[in-house]
Amino acid sequence: MGEVNSTLLASFVGRNDIQTAIRSISDRVGISTKEIEIFLVEGGTEYIVVYNVAADKANLKFDAIWKDTIALHRKKETNTLFSLNALNSLISSKIGKVNTKYKIDWTEYTNRLLILRRKRLVILNIEKVEIIV
Hints:
37% strand; 21% helix; globular; seven-stranded mixed barrel; 133 residues; alpha+beta
């Protein structure tokens, strides 16, 4: 059996909404809560709820799943989550331009989230947590 195409999504959720968000995401994309990973963002007031959406549901409007939802990519070896725009910004900050052949030392970004906020690269520490729903 071949691998199913999917898109990795991340929803940013405040501490008070985490239980509701997990249930809502599970229902809206048709996955078990066991298929959802939760990361606490440095500072402790925000969580990232990470999950794969099957290709046939990937065209859903992200905000219809949960407000503040974006597509991400992952380097499993280092537990690094990143958006493509953030990756391009990181490369540009290192060598002055975007170059898809530039090799990132992912160990520098172990347990980190790389995203753009207000068009600026933000690198945040993340910690996987278990939350019982």
